[in-house]
Design a protein that fits this description.
alpha+beta, Alpha-Beta Plaits, globular, binds inosine-5'-diphosphate, binds magnesium ion
């Protein structure tokens, strides 16, 4: 089924000019870009985005890290997009990520693992809404996220 998901380029990958590499990887693997923007998250926005991890040991560090620099938010669309994108980014720990995955290529550490991707269709809808309005998503007419 045609789905959309949200990929976010994390600060160190954006600073290291890996955004182009990541976009090429997405486009070369059938992920259609339907929305894209760069933004600097405030700690408050980062907290909202990662609220499901509140209370975890790594939460405060993650919030601090995610608000240190610019991120790129990319909304992509394809059949089975959410599961396919999770597979394509690879394991949370880049050292354990499979060859050819985004995290294997641009990840540095578990925290600086290059990218975020939505983990369910429901969270994809919320995360796309977090970054984009309808008029910023060109194929929003197909899916009312
Ligand atoms: P995911 O990004 O693969 O979905 P989650 O468990 O949802 O992984 O964690 C969200 C983010 O929090 C990870 O991408 C990573 O940057 C960071 N994180 C997760 N576990 C750890 C940890 O044990 N130490 C430091 N950072 C972590
Ligand atoms: Mg997650």
């Amino acid at each position: 089924m045609l789905e959309q998901s949200l990929l976010m380029v994390k600060p160190h990958a954006f600073t290291a000019k890996k955004t182009g590499t990541i976009i090429s990887m997405l486009e070369d693997n059938d992920f259609q870009i339907v929305g894209i923007k760069s933004i600097k998250l405030t700690p408050e926005l980062a907290r909202r985005f990662y609220f499901v991890h509140q209370g975890k040991e790594f939460f405060e560090r993650l919030i601090n890290y995610m608000s240190t620099g610019t991120v790129a938010a990319i909304c992509v669309e394809k059949d089975n997009c959410v599961a396919d994108l999770r597979k394509f980014i690879g394991a949370t720990d880049p050292a354990k990520a499979a060859e050819g995955t985004i995290r294997k290529i641009v990840g540095v550490t578990v925290e600086q693992n290059g990218v975020h991707a939505s983990d369910s269709v429901d969270n994809a809808r919320k995360e796309i809404r977090f970054f984009f309005s309808d008029i910023e998503l060109y194929s929003y007419r197909y899916l009312q996220y």
